[in-house]
Amino acid sequence: MTISDMNPEAVESWGMSNEEIAAYPTVYRDDLLAGKVVLIAGGDAGLGRATAYLCARLGGEVMICGPLQTELDATVQGVKQHLGRDIQAQAMRIHQPEAVDALLARVWQQFGKLDILVNSGGGGQTPGDAIDFSVEQWTDVVESKLNGCWYMMQKAAQRWREDEQAGSIVNLVADIWRGMPGLAHSCAADAGLVFAGNSLAVEWAPYNIRVNCVSHGTIARSDISPTGPDNSAELTRANPMLSCGDVMDIAEAVVYLAAPSGKFITGECLTVDGGQKLWGEVWPNGKPDYFATP
Predict the structure, then answer these.
(1) N or C: which end of the chain has fewer CB within 10 A?
(2) For residues 214 and 173, is the Cβ–Cβ distance under 8 A?
(3) Residue 182 — left, alpha, or beta (φ > 0 → left; ψ -120 to 50 → alpha)?
(4) Could you give the CA distance from residue 10 to residue 243 in angstroms, rounded to a whole number?
(5) CB contact set of 72 (below 8 Å; sequence gap of 6+)
(6) Architecture in CATH for domain 3-288
(7) pLDDT tens for residues 14-73?
(8) What is the rounded CA–CA span in Å between residue 125 and residue 141?
(9) Where do the structural domains in the chain lie, given as residue ranges?
């Protein structure tokens, strides 16, 4: 079924509900992350929220962060309601180094360690013509996405080094492999994370810290409108499978890299996009007339 086939009720609630995420038939055993502490930046919405649900379901001790307390509270309450698990939350912005320090201090104080860091935060980008981007449009995205995730990675790694503890980092990035016309700022930030990760995987290997990415294609999720100004109604044309993935496709990919299943994987970017990097059209800002079929 394509998005255009959906009825209005389905479109309004595009993506999986919290109930569906909690009951998703995961491939992983229930105690896979038992005894592991997981910190998820951006765990208040979308892909990060699904990852928080899955990690809690698999026995992990989960802390989420994000800018909006109301969204964080909704995730905490949802996990409690649907999974019977308690997770922790802290409202903060990852592009503020002092806030990152305070967050990690709380994690270590409350749990005594951190095993897995998932960066799904940052962004807030609006599609537009790059030639007309203001300085603020560009710097806001780079600051929140690239710099924010960097602060999270570096400060976690410093604590791991101090404690002589292993760590696993997974960064969520967009499908940047053929560029993203209309989202040049986001593409630049995500490409920076991918290639920084390649470098860090080598530099931090002596500390037993693994760094990987998950690159996601078009995903049906509640924090994106399929009929909004980002031209999402055409998202099923983005890949040769002519469909969208779901948030659990990404959450399970994150767990695969972060858990013991990924113990010999570092410096990798796992692409989950239905083949989008090979074929498909993505025009977040609308398809220009120049590229329209005659």
Answers:
(1) C
(2) yes
(3) left
(4) 15
(5) 43, 44, 64, 65, 66, 89, 90, 91
(6) 3-Layer(aba) Sandwich (3.40)
(7) 789 999 999 999 999 999 999 999 999 999 999 999 999 999 999 999 999 999 999 999
(8) 6
(9) 3-288
